Amino acid sequence: MSPDGLVLIGASTGGVQALMAVLPGLHAGLRVAVIVLLHLPPDKPSLLVELLSPLCALPVREPDDKETIAAGTIYVAPPNYHLMVETGGDELHFSLSVDEAVNFSRPSIDVLFESAAAARPGLPMVGVVLSGASRDGARGAQALALAGAPIWVQDPGSAEASLMPAAVQDTVPSSTVMPLQRMAPALCRIFDVERSSTSKEPR
Fold this sequence. Notes:
Distance between the termini: 30 Å
Number of helices: 6
Radius of gyration: 15 Å
Helix content: 25-40%
Largest sheet: 7 strands, parallel
Protein name: protein-glutamate methylesterase
EC number: 3.1.1.61
CATH topology: Rossmann fold
Strand content: 15-25%
Shape: globular
Order of helices and strands: EHEHEEEEHEHEHEH
CATH architecture: 3-Layer(aba) Sandwich
Organism: Aquabacterium soli
CATH class: Alpha Beta
Structural class: alpha/beta
GO molecular function, one term: protein-glutamate methylesterase activity
Number of domains: 1
GO cellular component, one term: cytoplasm
């Protein structure tokens, strides 16, 4: 089933704890695809699927190249590949790339966010940037914002590493500081299966 929207989450240093505070609150009825990109060592396997799966109501998996993006799934970017969202006919699919690192990172949050912003104009999206110690994600968040997506950041004061959310605040002045405990309920209100056409971004 094609997703009704995309939730794009970028994180780095301190991001595991932040993800564990957000993702378990997403209920199984959500008809969105949640795409998570965490900076990981390129030479080690990711343990995020094993770590997050027991905590989450939605299934958690790493996507394959050219895989169709489906609703009701949390996708975790694999290490040492850029993860991109692309349009194929009436569907969205993933693309994996071994192009050069961006902001010293592969996968790069900027690459993911920019690809999503260009893939399907008009598709509801939310960009979320959590704890991290680089500026990766700021340029991508700007692209998402220009495409009409709200941008949420973890409060830099509560983040283990404040540089990443602070950089997004500087680059996207319209971004909203969202406490971690409010992110999942807010996403559920926006993207709920039975949401009304008057659903709004939470104040």
